[in-house]
Amino acid sequence: MVQQPIVFLHGAGGSAHSWSALLEYLGSCPAIAIDLPGHGQRADTLPAEVSVSDYAQAVWQIVSHELQLQRPIVAGHSMGGAIALTLALEHGQELAGLILIGTGARLRVRADLLEAARTGSPEALQALATWSLVSTSSESQRTRFQQELASGAAQLYRDLLACHTFDCMARLGEIQLPTLIVVGAEDQMTPVKYSQYLHNHIAGSTLQIIPAAGHALMQERPEELARVIAAWLAAAPSTPSPGSCYNTASGFPHE
After folding, report:
1. Which end of the chain is more exposed for a tag (fewer CB within 10 A), N or C?
2. Cα–Cα distance, 38 to 141 (Å, whole number)
3. What crossing angle do the helices spanning 153-164 and 52-61 adopt, rounded to 10°?
4. Per DSSP, what are the bridge partners of residue 19?
């Protein structure tokens, strides 16, 4: 079977490096983690406000023109999942599947968090770190997560505002793609009920709940998340099967 690559989309204030640990564990699966515009190595100038739809249009240009990928599987975490859902609605016939990690069909953001991010308050980063990881996360995981958030602080308010205005609940029934939905049992940012709603409204979807895990699954439980993805790829119709291929992040070869 011809192997389609998986394109990984990070969440608010993140970058392609959010997926580094997961890519290590995915091994032979073809995977590409990209930076959204204005993030990481794509530090383009963006308007003060940008929507999930705007990001989806930009991602599609990267996927179809820059990377020239044919029928990829799109995987997204949190805001990246909202972008993946939007791509499924706008370009479903040109995709091979969806992987939705810690996300929802609507992503309302608390007013106090939005205000802290707008003013650049360090409280916004501290709150996100607290809500994204479970209490048993290692100190090194917390440090790496906070460092990544700090590097994307300039984009955080714009991203959270894009999340806050996103809502595709009424359109989920239009999605006709093999879909894997994964959530941490202790996710405080996008609780299990968000993923359950996706599962109930996307026909034929698969829901996996990872015990004792929070929101940042790819950083907190990368090995287990990789196993879940690999098992779904092996079982899902019209999806790639494992084989020797490549992993990349931000367009650079994974070694």
Report:
1. C
2. 25
3. 110
4. none
Q: What is the pLDDT along the chain (255 residues), one digit of tens a residue?
A: 246 899 999 999 899 999 999 999 998 788 999 999 999 888 776 677 899 999 999 999 999 999 999 999 999 999 999 999 999 999 999 999 999 999 999 999 989 888 888 888 888 877 887 778 887 777 777 777 777 776 667 788 999 999 999 999 999 999 999 999 999 999 999 999 999 999 999 999 999 999 999 999 998 999 999 999 999 999 876 543 333 232 333 332 232
d(CA 8, CA 219): 13
Instruction: Give the C-alpha separation, 217 to 63, whole Å.
Output: 24
Backbone torsions φ then ψ of 106, nearest 5 degrees = -140, 135
All structural domains of the chain: 6-253 (3.40.50.1820)
Between CA 151 and CA 38 the distance in angstroms is 12
User: Distance (Å, rounded) from C-alpha 100 to C-alpha 78?
Assistant: 8
